[in-house]
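Exercise: predict the fold of this chain.
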Amino acid sequence: MPLSKDIKGGGTNADGSKSTEYCSFCYVNGEFTQAGPMEDFRKNLDKNMKEKKHPWWIRTMMWYQVPTLKRWKK
């Protein structure tokens, strides 16, 4: 999620400060809210987007963008 769309303005770091890299849905108190492998994250993202009635092509685009996010890069 773009931080500009996050109603909380971003997640929180371990010291309580705002994260400038991760949204409030993904990052709280310096930890990711959803542990586990990227494939689980992708499936959950697709499920949530489908429930919110995002079109298939947006969901597909996001599916391919997930591995490019900083969290998943090594």
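Check your answer against the key: Helices lie at 38-51, 56-65.
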